[in-house]
Each structure stands twice: as C-alpha cells, then as structure tokens.
Design brief:
ATP-binding protein, eight-stranded mixed sheet
Length: about 700
C-alpha cells in the first residue's frame, strides 16, 4: 500500500554488488560503519523537532557463549552486532528515497557523500531498519532489511504506527570476522573510539545525549564521560593557510589510546590519523608529568578546506601531498603546520623528554661507545633526530646508521672534490678550506672505527678472563668454550668473518694468513693432501711475517692446541699437548701440501712451524715442558724452545699469561680510549721528578 508522499518506492537503481566492490574499507577501520550510523543519527536529530533534546542509544551486543581462560576467569566475547536507536526525523519519504539513491546529494551541505550506508555491508552481512516518523500529520512505521544479495526488502515497507514518537532503530548484524577481530573488546575502549571519531559533535552546544550499553549490563554515558575525562584538557589553536581557516584541538588522554596521534577531520568526523612518533621523534611513549600523571596526546584538525576535499568513502582526502592546481594546501604542509603548534603546546613536556634523552645518549657514548663522540660533536642534530626512550641496543643501531650515512656523505664529498679539481673550479683559498674539512672528517671517522675495534678487544678479553675462572658449579669451563672465544670451531677462514677470529689474543701476527682451519679434520683441509683423521684445534697457514715472497711455498704454519684450565692429567703420551702438536707437524710434513686452488707446493720441509700450547701450568704440564727441553719464561708462566727434530718452535702459555700479555699489548689503546687523561698524568709525573 502506498502512502501519500511515497512517490518512489522502487529498489536500488544500480548494481549494488558492483557498488560494494568499489567501496574500500580497510580492516583497521572496522568500526567505520558504526561511526557512520551514529553520525547519521546525530544529523537526523539536527533536522528534527527533537534537535534540543536528541537522544541516541547504542547497544553493543556480544557473542553469547563466554569463554574461560587458563586462570578460570571469563573472557570478554567480541562484539557481533550493534543497534543504534535515535529520536531523529527518521526514514521519511525524502530520506528513504535518498537512501535508495547512490551518491545522493541530499545532505551534501553536511559533508555527506551519499555512500555511507554501503560501508554497512562491507563489515556486516545485513542491516535491519525500523523507523517511526511523522509525515503529513500521520505517524508511520517503515521496516525493511538491507543486504548485498537482496538490496532493500520488502519494497513496500510502510504501515501505520500505533506509537506517536520519533524512533529509528538501525541494527548492524553479523559482524564479519576479519573486521570483528580488529574491533576493541572492552566497552570503555569502544566508548573512547566513538568520542574520538565524533569529537567535533561533542564540542558543539547541541550534542545529543549518547549512551553506550552492552548485553552484559555495562553502560557509559558518553557526554558525561567526555566532560569528565576529555573536555577540561581541550585547547584550541586557529591558523590560516592560503585563505583557508583551520582549527586544531589539543587533548591529553590519560587512558584509552596507545599512541600519540593527529587526526584530520571533515564534516565533524575523523577521517585520517597520523602516528606522531613518525613526525616528532620524542613522542614515542606515554608522557609522564612531574605529578606522576601519564597521558597520550591527540590532535584534531578541522576546517572547511578539509570538508571540501574529503573523498567519497571518507577514508582519505583528495588533495595531493604536493601543491597542485587543484589543491592550494598539501597534506604535507598541513601536517607541518600542525606539528609546530603541537610542539608549542607540549613544549614543557617535550623539553623534559629531550633533556632525559640527551643525558642517556651522552652517558651511553661516554661509558660504553666512545667511538661515537666525534659523530655527536659534528652532528649535534642527531640529538633531535634519534627517537626518545630507546633501549641501548636500538640506540646503538641509530648511531651506527648515522655514522654510515655520514661516511656516505663524506665519500660523495670526496668525489665532488675530485670532479671540481679536474674542472679547475676551485680557487686556492676555497679549495684549502673544503679539502681540510674533508680530511678532518675522514680522520675522525677512522678514529671512530678504531675505537669500536679497541672496545671489542677489551670486551673479548674481559669475557676470556671470566671464562678461565672457576665457575659457580666449582668446575672450569671446557676447552671448547675457550677455543670458541679465540676462534669459532668447525670453520675455515673462508666460512667466517675476519672480526669473528680473535687470534690476536695469542699473537697479533696470526690474524694475517692465507688459510685457517679451526677444529677441522686434517684430511678435509683444501691445503693438505693427507688421509689423517686427526683434528688440530687451530691451524694457520702462511702468516704475513713470511720469510719469502715465493707463493709456491708455505712460509709458515702455526698450530694451536688448547687444554681445559687446571687440567693435571697430561703425562701420558696421548694426552701430552706438546707431543700432540709435534705429531701434527710430522703428519703435515709426511703429507703433501697444496695451495687452495689445488696447485701442489714443492714441499714443506723448509717451512717454519710455530706451535702454541694454551694450558695452565699444572704439575703434569710443567713436567711435559721440561721433558721436551723447553725453557721457563722469565715471568714463570710459560715455556719456550725449539725442537730440532721436527723443525718447530714451541711455546707453552698459561691462561693467566695469555690474558695478561694480551692486555699489556693492548693497554696503550685501552688507556687512550677509556682514560684519555693518562698521558697528561704520566707527563706530569715525569716533569715533577
């Protein structure tokens, strides 16, 4: 039956499913359909006789079967359905016909694009609408279902109403899983989301009464919640750009948000959010005041320019990032202007964060990473660019990245200097200045790299010193542990980074070689042709201090053997480490040596062999050394000598001597880096004597 005024009642006049395919709704905007419904209710009330006493009730229904967690507590089920009830003007003929028309311009003055209802069917399988309204002095009720498969049904959906008051109920049913999972679980979190999205309405004088409930009995009066938790912290800045006026609202949120954000709003609703930590490096975590109160910052930017440039889906803006003929103000410019106002609003809070960050960086660099001192001195802007509240590990990454970037800049500067020299584009004075600056930067970066290397050496020695001590279980570390500190096991020099080998602890000259093998079967080594299945702890071939430049010879081969600290059972031949290393020498000389590329060497009969035995000088170890004819070192912590039969120099080094000698060799570097005043102290003493 048709009622007067219902001049068009036919269904949607376009391909609904095709239209839905064109509408984009990201999963992180799962609540947008609900927000659209609430905004529709607010606007409906604005157009009605109830504009001064508007009421909106939002029912957020959860799945009924509650789950119990591991602790025996019931968990909150997700929301599966929303009902929005208002006392606005309802689905009268004009509004209903607008509903049936895609891209309707009925409410274009309010910023409506005419496609908001399509968002419903992106996140919900169906929507039920029941609306009581007055038209031509007659109270009517319209009731229908809206779905992607059937559009609006039934088409004839009007009947007389026994109720004489405005009431519209929109039920969003069957929340699609991928969107449901992105929605908040707590009702309070949902309340805050609604307020955030509709903030401009809450700021107005005629905001309807909005109540949020769930089916567990929890309830929030959003107007009171806004007044008690948000309104008092509001501050507004106004500015103008290219003839366009904007308002920026600042809010400090104690709860309900997890990051600092800037929101661009259009037509009194949030459209796009920006994570401020990407624009203000010190806004990484919740701000804590001197009084112990913590908050996150939220900014809301509004203006006619944003209203005019919002896209059809109200999920983004049409203006480009760069200025164009069609957009007088770019997105980037607006963010930049808003950023300056935010910095001014939070100036006191950010100063405390900045000061704490600087102190943390300075302390870290001074005590642990002095190689970055010069970087911070030459690049003080890094204090602002490095985010606040970083861990030491992440701060190290930031500093390392900064010095790599600086090195790239310096290399580019070097190439530019070379180019200008070739083109004779420098006069003597300007060339001298630029060249000196370039060389200064190169020198300091080299110092920084050296500092990092020295720090690593000190850390390795500290680790080794702890490893040779008796452990908490009253036992000593296994020789494999100590071996791995000096050099990773089961590798050759072709398989590991140079920095992973710490042979300098034994002898700095061992670091330079043609080939190294660590705990590998002798028969597997590409530089030897032998069937021997023994494993040398470490074998180093062709050291840099070779006697000859003839590449057809191994000028030297070094063998390192480790024994567990405090081991005192080394008298037997099969356990005697001196006999072991001399046996390796015999095996190598009896086999055939070859170069890594497979080309054979002539022989190794004249190759110099250096054998290092790293072991504590227990009674059995001392007896082995004396029996081998070795001589006690002056410090009493080692033995040395030459075995004429095998043609091998032998050195026995206790672990204490190993660490002590390595420290002494590197002490000048440690003093320069960790105690730069040491030379002044020494010179002062010499002058006073």
């Amino acid at each position: 039956m048709l009622y007067e005024g219902d001049h068009i009642l036919n269904n949607f006049r376009f391909n609904l499913k095709g239209q839905l395919n064109e509408v984009k709704l990201p999963e992180y905007k799962a609540l947008w359909p609900l927000f659209e419904t609430i905004v529709n209710s607010i606007q409906s009330i604005e157009e009605s006789t109830n504009s001064q006493n508007g009421q909106i009730t939002i029912l957020a229904n959860r799945l009924e079967d509650r789950q119990v967690n591991m602790d025996g507590n019931e968990e909150l089920n997700p929301f599966c359905e929303f009902q929005v009830i208002d006392n606005g003007e309802g689905f009268n003929s004009i509004n209903y016909n607008s509903f049936l028309e895609a891209y309707s311009n009925l409410k274009v003055s309010k910023g409506c694009k005419g496609i908001g209802r399509f968002l419903w069917l992106k996140a919900f399988t169906k929507v039920n609408i029941e609306s009581v309204y007055c038209e031509k002095n007659r109270w009517l009720k319209r009731k229908f279902e809206f779905s992607a498969d059937n559009g609006v049904e039934p088409e004839e959906n009007i009947e007389g109403s026994s109720i004489s008051e405005y009431k519209t109920v929109v039920t969003l049913s069957n929340f699609i899983l991928k969107y449901r999972k992105k929605a908040p679980l707590s009702l309070e979190a949902l309340a805050k989301k609604v307020i955030e999205h509709c903030l401009p309405y809450f700021l107005g004088e005629n905001c309807p009464s909005i109540v949020l409930k769930d089916n567990l009995g929890e309830i929030y009066d959003l107007n009171k919640y806004f007044d008690s938790t948000i309104k008092d912290s509001l501050h507004r800045d106004e500015f103008e750009k290219d003839g366009n006026k904007f308002s920026l609202y600042h809010i400090k949120m104690a709860e309900g948000v997890v990051k600092h954000e800037l929101h661009f709003c259009a037509s009194k609703r949030e459209v796009k959010s920006y994570d401020l930590s990407q624009y203000i490096t010190d806004l990484q975590k919740r701000i804590v005041t001197d009084e112990g109160e913590a908050f996150y910052y939220l900014g809301y930017l509004t203006g006619d320019y944003l209203d005019r440039n919002v896209n059809l889906n109200r999920t983004a803006f049409d203006f480009e990032d760069e200025d164009t003929l069609f957009a007088s103000v770019s997105e980037r410019e607006l963010i930049g202007i808003a950023k300056e106002y935010i910095l001014a609003y939070l100036i006191d809070d950010l100063k405390k964060i900045k000061d704490a960050k600087r102190n943390f960086i300075d302390s870290y660099v001074q005590k642990e990473k002095p190689q970055y001192r010069y970087l911070l001195n030459r690049k003080p802007e890094l204090y602002d660019q490095i985010p606040a509240n970083l861990s030491k590990e992440k701060l190290e990454l930031e500093l390392h990245s900064a010095i790599q970037k600086w090195e790239t800049e310096i290399h580019s500067q070097g190439r530019e200097i070379e180019k200008k020299i070739k083109e004779s584009k420098f006069d003597r004075e300007s060339f001298s200045k630029i060249f000196n600056e370039y060389c200064s930067s190169i020198t300091e970066i080299s110092k920084s790299s050296l500092s990092e290397y020295v720090i690593r050496r000190k850390a390795i020695l500290d680790l080794l010193e702890k490893a040779i001590e008796i452990q908490d279980d009253n036992r000593y570390c296994a020789e494999e542990t100590l071996h791995s500190i000096i050099c990773p096991m089961r590798y050759t020099s072709d398989e590991i980074e140079f920095e992973e080998m710490n042979l300098w602890i034994i002898d700095d000259r061992l670091a330079y070689h043609t080939f190294l093998a660590s705990d590998k079967l002798m028969k597997s080594l590409p530089v030897l042709d032998t069937s021997v299945e023994k494993r040398m702890d470490i074998a180093v071939f062709d050291q840099a201090f070779s006697f000859s430049d003839n590449q057809d010879f191994f000028n030297s081969i070094s063998i390192v053997e480790f024994k567990k600290p405090n081991r005192n059972d080394l008298k037997d031949d099969d356990k005697n480490p001196i006999n072991q290393v001399l046996g390796y020498v015999k095996n190598i000389k009896e086999g055939k040596a070859k170069r890594p590329n497979g080309r054979p060497f002539v022989n190794v009969s004249n190759t110099a062999f250096y054998c290092y035995v790293i072991a504590d000088l227990t009674d059995s170890m001392r007896e082995d050394a004396v029996n081998a004819g070795l001589i006690l070192t002056p410090d009493g912590d080692g033995y040395f000598g030459y075995n004429q039969t095998r043609g091998a120099y032998i050195e026995v080094i206790s672990y204490d001597k190993l660490v002590r000698d390595a420290k002494q060799r590197n002490q000048i570097l440690f003093d320069k880096l960790f105690n730069p005043k040491v030379n002044e102290v020494l010179n002062s003493k010499l002058l006073n004597e």
